[in-house]
Amino acid sequence: MAEEPQKPASAEEVVPVPADTPPTTQSEAEAEVEANAESIEEVVAEAEKAQSGAEDKISQSVSFKEETNVVGDLPEAQRKALDELKRLVQEALNNHELTAPKPEPEKKKTELKALEKKEEEVSEEKKEVEVTEEKKEAEVTEEKKEAEVIEEKKEAEVIEEKKEVDATEEKKEAEVIEEKKEVEVTEEKKEAEVIEEKKETEVIEEKKEREVLEEKKEGVVPISPEEVEIWGIPLLGDERSDVILLKFLRARDFKVKDALSMLRNTVRWRKEFGIEGLVEEDLGSDWDKVVFSHGHDKEGHPVYYNVFGEFEDKELYNKTFWDEEKRNKLIRWMIQSLEKSVRSLDFSPTGISTIVQVNDLKNSPGLGKRELRQATNQVLQLFQDNYPEFVAKQIFINVPWWYLAFSRMISPFFTQRTKSKFLFAGPSKSAHTLFQYIAPELVPVQYGGLSREAEQEFTTSDPVTEVTIKPATKHAVEFPVSEKSHAVWEIRVVGWDVSYGAEFVPGAEDGYTVIVQKNRKIGPADETVITNAFKIGEPGKIVLTIDNQTSKKKKLLYRSKTKPIPE
């Protein structure tokens, strides 16, 4: 990996496009651009005056270099920050805090108050039940006394008026009445006791639940740590986990608590947004030409192209931005695309865990398309908040003159670390800029390279030679051939506007030169890549001649190979 850069500012991952992208919130970003509409027009006016030569001004170089992910190679302060973050993550996993909803202190207080109030109500009800029981017992005692008086009176009357048999029967009836009343009182008392026990049980259970939660929070009751993965990798457990945690630390300038907060929010967002299900969704292929991957750069980073000019197609634009549902589908598609890209990266300490983005601004709708700007801002905010430090370099090509004004407006919103990843190139310098970082055989043909989708004689494994042809000069390329063979070559001059010819020159002095490709002038729009072939029957050489009579340097790309001819 590259050397450690000078102390960077806090990094907030950005996927810049021709839309305002402040590192705070989406709403603030939109408000800022809307509020500065007039100032944009003023700056654009200034940029129009300076349009000639603008390309020379916007082509820049950057100094950002990726830091190492090998823990042993980190500065001591960064290793300590990583160890501290791992400790805090382990605590959060133990307490099930990473996937839990955000805490609501006021709600907890309300629940405790409600529980206390319920306990008071149960206590009051218990007292009321006791009073009721005492009252019923008093009534039973009074009734018993009255029954005894009646009984005595009746016994006296029986002695006087009736026989002893009648008196005995009345006494039994009085006893039956008394026993019946006592049974009713006993049943009511039992029912009251059951109700009281039930309420006491509910209060005890609620109290126990509250105590268990408090004990868990304090670490008194041992619970199994939750298992959390992100991009298919556990947050703790192996060296790949360290690479992920380092991304969050770098995104927050190694401020451990800020990094933990960002990580916690990302885990919760992934759960709420349903990332695992989103990866499997079929969202169609409407935007396959808007965002696509193609090859890798010279350091092995996967390269992704954002082609905003595709939205010049009114049918596609309306199909994408006609209503909120369609805009949300685009947002989900873009997040799905990035999620799949991230999952394909190598998170080992020495692996490639970042990408290069090429943003093509040719025919871009620009600042006037409010729907595109809003959707882009929303996506950018989600990328910044939940995919930190995944972009190694941002290359802007075919940058129009109006972007000068726009970039001047948004520049204050970006940190120095983020801006150090940006590289800008106007139309005439776009191919040259891409070739600095991506081999020509891996650059798509529409951007000046030789890579084409259809099956060709050459593949991306066949290297390309680059040559710069000075103004008003001729340049010759020779391919020596020592045996009978079938020679094939392809050639491209970026922007052409030169003359090109090819011939075979035999090695024998008495041999005759054979014209393979008659010399002709090739305009910028005539052809992109020229492929020639020639069957050679004797030793000699193929000579290609490129005549650049313009006042500009030209970039020449070519490669060749020979195939033996069977006897």
From TrEMBL:
Stated name of the protein: Patellin-3 isoform B
SUPFAM superfamilies: CRAL/TRIO domain, CRAL/TRIO N-terminal domain, Supernatant protein factor (SPF), C-terminal domain
Positions with biased composition (Low complexity): 14-25
InterPro entries attached to this UniProt entry: CRAL-TRIO_dom, CRAL-TRIO_dom_sf, CRAL/TRIO_N_dom, CRAL/TRIO_N_dom_sf, GOLD_dom, GOLD_dom_sf, PATL, PATL1-6_C_GOLD
The GOLD domain, residue ranges: 452-562
Domain CRAL-TRIO intervals: 280-455
Family: Belongs to the patellin family.
Primary location class: cytoplasm
